[in-house]
Amino acid sequence: MSNNANSLTQSFLNLLESDKGKEIFDTLDQLMEILETKDDPDMTEVCIVGNLTEFSEKLQIMKSNLRSYVNGNRTLLGDMLNDLYDK
């Protein structure tokens, strides 16, 4: 079961870091920049900037946690293999 979660996590990280994923986040960055520099933003635009900022921060934290999860599982698998060889 953990192997499934590990491979899904890695696949998701690969999607985020793919050209398409980068294109999506570049577009969101451009939108945020346009809305942040607008002279007289309406309330919806202010909310969108706040949402994009919060989303970006949480996404970075989630990516870090997912990488730790994948790397942690690799370490555990490596330890299990070492234990098998030692025995």
Short structural summary:
The protein is mostly helical and 87 residues long. The protein contains three helices and no strands.
SSE topology sketch:
Layout: H1 2-16, H2 19-36, H3 43-86
Helix pairs in contact: 1-3, 2-3
Question: Care to describe what's here?
Answer:
There is one protein chain. By secondary structure, the chain is mostly helical. The protein has one domain (2-86). Helix content is 89%, strand content 0%. The radius of gyration is 19 Å and the shape is elongated. The two termini are 25 Å apart. 0% of the residues are buried.
Number of strands: 0
Low-confidence stretches: none
Helical amount: over 70%
Number of separate helices: 3
Main sheet makeup:
none
Structural class: mainly alpha
What best-fitting shape do the alpha-carbon axes yield? Answer: elongated
Terminal Cα separation, in Å?
25 Å
Q: In sequence order, what are the helices and strands, one letter per element?
A: HHH
Rg from C-alpha positions?
Answer: 19 Å
Tally the structural domains: 1
Query: What is the mean predicted local confidence, pLDDT?
Result: 87
Beta-strand content bin: under 5%
